[in-house]
Design a protein that fits this description.
Layout lengths: L5 H53 L2 H11 L5 H26 L3 H4 L5 H26 L3 H25 L4 H25 L14 H12 L1 H39 L10 H13 L3 H28 L1 H8 L8 H7 L2 H17 L3 H25 L4 H27 L4 H25 L5 H22 L8 H16 L1
Helix pairs in contact: 1-3, 1-5, 1-6, 1-9, 2-5, 2-10, 3-5, 5-7, 6-7, 9-15, 9-16, 10-11, 10-14, 11-14, 11-17, 12-18, 13-16, 14-16, 15-16, 17-18
Length: about 500
């Protein structure tokens, strides 16, 4: 079976992300207001808590699974092994939560969260992990195009289901969890059938004879340096959300969760590339083609960073309008949280793409050391912003943005050494591209203030911003790590598409 080209896979993943992002925007407009700050805060806390727990017990095995399967899709025993691993880990998490409940420590670990939501959040977390595993299998086998089309259709139907729940039920957090269960189980079933059709899943998958201990050692060799990293990550990550919940309550957790959900729109273009570029780095390294890895790094990392900056900085300037449109007055105090958090996707994008080099090349020890240093350093900001200054969700947003900037540039330093390129142009690009978009967003926002209607203001500033960036980017193409010839070529292709 011939695999689709990188451009085609990125194109469909990008299209899927755009459609899913637009549908996600509609969900953000519906759910927080329908649930209210407290119940939405419960959901945000539980979602982040179980993400931390699963991330800890995952200990990098999901990355090992994806990297190794990407390098050699014939190794179906990896799928069998990882399915078994998920089953064991899920059992351990259930046992842990049951023990905490039995020992009456639930209120200590989950401040102000009702018991039934704790178990519902657990099921949500496990189903999310399985869904992510299925997506990794599709990307590793270059089935991105087929699965992304399924994701688009699935997301549209899921939105219809959510609208039914909100309109015809006494919608609360329990119904919101039920909505997610139905949606994820349906997705897993449909994609599973596609895997059967593509012979990725077959009746031999669970009866494969292979060296279980040998694969276990292989995963351990890859992931063992990440055990300490995952342990520290669990502690620091849990302390962040627990301290926010303890000091500010579910309302502050809700503000942070809302801001994070909105800024996720900035990942539309960039997150589409992360699994694809990771796969390409893995294949290139397997073939000892360092030159190709270097070229991909030069080509995609700065460009996707600028795209994230394009969306994130404009979002920061339009925070007041966006909150007024998406939510009601109960979330107006989330304004500064969103202003700050809008900068998070910039270096999060850089970190995901740059960090994929460490996984692709097996440098997990170095990745661990960088991560642990950054997380422990970040505790200083957690204590300062959330505990001592009691800034609530604003404090956590500040901490996340600062630490992401630090860890990204430390990773960049080591990647520059490994791939043998100069770091300075990449750092300089981070600085001047942010300044570029701030100037464009400021002008666009200032022009839009002529109207009192928030919809007109947002629409006007968006059009002006796009126009200014387009003109300025043609004059200074380095902002998007490109040149005028490439811009002309893309323009000609777009004109050709519209003519057809």
């Amino acid at each position: 079976m011939s695999e689709d080209s990188l451009k085609k896979r990125y194109g469909i993943k990008l299209l899927s992300n755009i459609i899913n992002g637009l549908l996600g925007v509609i969900i953000i407009m519906i759910v927080p207001s329908a649930l209210g700050p407290i119940q939405y805060g419960h959901f945000s806390f539980l979602q982040q808590f179980y993400t931390q727990i699963i991330g800890f017990l995952d200990t990098g095995t999901s990355i090992a699974f994806f990297t190794k399967l990407s390098a050699n899709q014939k190794r179906k025993e990896l799928i069998t092994f990882y399915m078994f691993y998920i089953l064991v880990v899920s059992f351990l998490i259930v046992l842990f939560i049951y023990s905490i409940n039995t020992l009456k420590y639930t209120d200590t670990l989950f401040p102000g969260i009702p018991n039934n939501y704790i178990y519902m959040g657990l099921s949500f977390g496990i189903l999310t992990w399985i869904t992510q595993m299925f997506i990794k299998i599709s990307d590793a086998n270059a089935l991105t195009v087929s699965v992304e089309w399924l994701k688009i259709i699935h997301k549209i139907l899921s939105l219809c289901l959510l609208l039914y729940f909100v309109s015809y039920t006494a919608f609360d957090l329990t119904h919101y969890f039920y909505f997610h269960y139905i949606s994820m189980v349906a997705f897993i079933t449909i994609v599973g059938l596609l895997f059967v059709k593509s012979n990725i899943f077959n009746r031999h998958l669970l009866t494969l004879r292979f060296g279980f201990k040998q694969i276990g050692r292989e995963f351990f060799h890859f992931s063992s340096p990440l055990v300490v990293y995952s342990t520290v990550g669990l502690g620091v990550g849990f302390l962040d959300i627990w301290l926010l919940q303890k000091m500010g309550g579910s309302i502050q957790s809700g503000f942070y969760g809302l801001a994070y959900s909105i800024v996720a729109a900035s990942f539309l273009f960039t997150s589409a590339m992360t699994p694809i570029i990771t796969r390409e780095f893995s294949k290139s390294y397997e073939e000892k083609n360092i030159e190709q890895m270097r070229n991909n790094f030069y080509r995609y990392i700065p460009m996707l960073y600028s795209i994230a900056a394009f969306f994130g900085i404009f979002l920061s300037f339009q925070s007041e309008n966006i909150l007024a449109i998406f939510t009601d007055g109960k979330f107006k105090d989330a304004y500064w949280v969103l202003v700050i958090m809008a900068f998070y996707p910039l270096h999060q994008t850089y970190g995901q793409l740059s960090g994929s080099i460490f996984y692709a090349t097996g440098q997990t020890k170095l990745y661990r050391n960088i991560g642990i240093f950054s997380m422990l350093f970040g505790l200083l900001f957690t204590g300062l912003f959330i505990y001592f200054l009691n800034l609530g969700a604003i404090g956590l947003a500040l901490k996340m943005v600062i630490i992401q900037f630090i860890v990204t540039n430390i990773q960049l330093y080591f990647n520059a050494k490994f791939l043998d390129f100069k770091m300075k142009p990449f750092v300089w690009h981070q600085v001047y591209s942010i300044g570029f978009f701030i100037v464009m967003a400021y002008i666009a926002t200032h022009i839009s203030t002529v109207s009192d209607n928030i919809y007109i203001r947002l629409c006007t500033s968006s059009l002006v911003y796009i126009f200014l960036v387009t003109i300025a980017a043609y004059i200074f193409p380095k902002v998007f790590a490109t040149n005028r010839n490439e811009i002309k070529l893309v323009t000609i292709r777009l004109i050709g598409v519209f003519k057809k």
